[in-house]
């Protein structure tokens, strides 16, 4: 049995204070622990000083089960996969997250031993229990496991449909998407400042939604990712959503077909931060636009931060729904510009190997004023290595 050293210490103190075993037996257990390099609890069982069942009961009583507000926690869909629906419903519990060999589970059942035993029958993970109320559990069961008549159990397909709302999977970018690596210049300073306020939670003075408008490669996506990364690092259990407008449109349609649109609205309403990149991907569908407008209004009432990203042409066109137009007009719109050649030159100096610097500056110099972007350098990098080396050698 693998338990924490702190709990091991509590176990020893409990045994001494209650005199469950003699001082001589206690010493034998500690000697075996040292000789065999096993835990103190395992030594007690191996010497048959306590049965495994007796030890479990003592350990459960010693643990201080913390409570949690389930609506404030971002549930990891990967953790949900480890507990079948029938078990979660029977035990009235929902997995929250997995860390290494530990599965954190929120439960409403007062019989902690029953919950632990039930989970041990379906998973080999060490279980950490958090207490929560039954209403929150039942709602989470509905959201993450679905209705009993149509769900049965969580499959990889059903999880993957919901997984896109989290937007966390993917390869690591070459440069960390943070405020430190953001290309800073006059045309984006206000946008970055407001994004940093949102990331740090100091956004009372901002009218949401905050709409970042700018051409492609102006840094809109980078700022959204920087907000997400900062908030996740600051508070890993903080619930947030990072999604594209196109993904949001697909989610709306799928949840509607599944009869779970209320569940999607609940997920958004309970998020502390909503980040939607290329928001215009949702546009053109009045019913979906109106649903999103109502969701944003609910989120604002709950104090959530909402940041949307738009291209300049999209801003001029606008959504179909009058309700969504009103929501956007009530927010804060920030215009972002492309970096200058001089700014990109400094970025090249700080990010790229010195042997490429000359070649990359030549690429920037060949661009017309106002057309030099980081994408110009990406296009150059997509050429063969031989061409890049030839340029860097001249």
Helical residue percent band = 40-55%
- Sketch the topology as an H/E string, one letter per element: HHHHHHEEHEHHHEHEHHEHEHHEHHHH
Averaged pLDDT, please?
A: 81
Continuous helix count: 20
Main sheet summary: 5 strands, parallel
Detail the poorly predicted runs.
149-169
Shape: globular
Radius of gyration: 27 Å
Number of strands: 8
Termini distance? 66 Å
In short:
This protein is of the alpha/beta class and 394 residues long. It has 20 helices and eight strands.
Walkthrough of the structure:
The chain is an alpha/beta fold. Helices cover 52% and strands 11% of the residues. The protein contains 20 helices and 8 strands. It has a 5-stranded parallel beta sheet, sandwiched between helices. A 3-stranded mixed beta sheet has the order 1-2-3. Helix 12 packs across helix 13 and helix 18 packs across helix 20.
Output the keywords:
394 residues; alpha/beta; 5-stranded parallel β-sheet; 3-stranded mixed β-sheet; 20 helices; 52% helix; 11% strand
Outline the fold blueprint.
Blueprint: H1 5-18, H2 23-36, H3 40-46, H4 52-62, H5 77-80, H6 85-91, E1 93-99, E2 102-107, H7 112-120, E3 126-131, H8 134-145, H9 156-163, H10 189-200, E4 210-213, H11 220-234, E5 240-244, H12 245-257, H13 261-269, E6 273-277, H14 286-301, E7 305-310, H15 312-317, H16 322-329, E8 332-335, H17 341-351, H18 354-366, H19 374-381, H20 385-393
Parallel strand pairs: 2-3, 4-7, 4-8, 5-6, 6-7
Antiparallel strand pairs: 1-2
Helix pairs in contact: 2-3, 10-11, 12-13, 14-16, 17-18, 18-20
């Amino acid at each position: 049995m693998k338990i924490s050293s702190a709990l091991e210490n509590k176990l020893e103190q409990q045994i001494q204070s209650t005199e469950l075993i003699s001082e001589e037996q206690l010493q034998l257990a500690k000697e075996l622990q040292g000789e065999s390099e096993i835990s103190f609890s395992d030594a007690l069982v191996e010497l048959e000083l306590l049965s495994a069942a007796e030890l479990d009961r003592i350990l459960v009583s010693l643990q201080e089960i913390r409570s949690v507000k389930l609506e404030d926690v971002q549930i990891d869909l990967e953790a949900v996969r480890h507990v079948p629906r029938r078990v979660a419903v029977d035990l009235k519990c929902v997995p929250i997250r997995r860390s290494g060999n530990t599965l954190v589970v929120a439960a409403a059942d007062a019989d902690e031993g029953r919950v632990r035993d039930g989970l041990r029958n379906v998973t080999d993970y060490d279980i950490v229990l958090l207490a929560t109320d039954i209403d929150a559990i039942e709602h989470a069961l509905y959201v993450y496991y679905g209705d009993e008549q149509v769900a049965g159990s969580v499959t990889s397909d059903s999880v993957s449909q919901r997984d896109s709302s989290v937007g966390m999977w993917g390869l690591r970018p070459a440069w960390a998407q943070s405020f430190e690596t953001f290309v800073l210049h006059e045309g984006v300073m206000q946008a970055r400042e407001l994004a940093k306020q949102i990331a740090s939670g100091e956004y009372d003075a901002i009218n949401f939604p905050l709409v970042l408008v700018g051409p492609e490669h102006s840094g809109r996506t980078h700022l959204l990712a920087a907000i997400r990364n900062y908030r996740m690092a600051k508070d890993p259990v903080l619930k947030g959503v990072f999604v594209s407008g196109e993904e949001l449109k697909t989610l709306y349609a799928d949840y509607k077909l599944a009869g779970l649109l209320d569940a999607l609205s609940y997920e958004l309403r309970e998020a502390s931060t909503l980040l939607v990149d290329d928001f215009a991907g949702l546009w053109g569908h009045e019913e979906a636009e109106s649903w999103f407008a109502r969701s944003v209004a609910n989120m604002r009432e709950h104090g959530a931060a909402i940041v949307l990203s738009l291209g300049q042409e999209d801003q001029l066109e606008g959504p179909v729904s009058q309700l969504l137009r009103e929501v956007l007009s009530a927010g804060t719109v920030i215009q972002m510009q492309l970096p200058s050649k001089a700014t990109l030159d400094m970025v090249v100096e700080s990010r790229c190997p010195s042997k490429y610097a000359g070649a990359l500056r030549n690429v920037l110099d060949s661009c017309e004023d106002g057309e030099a972007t980081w994408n110009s350098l990406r296009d150059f990098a997509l050429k063969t290595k031989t061409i890049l080396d030839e340029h860097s050698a001249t």
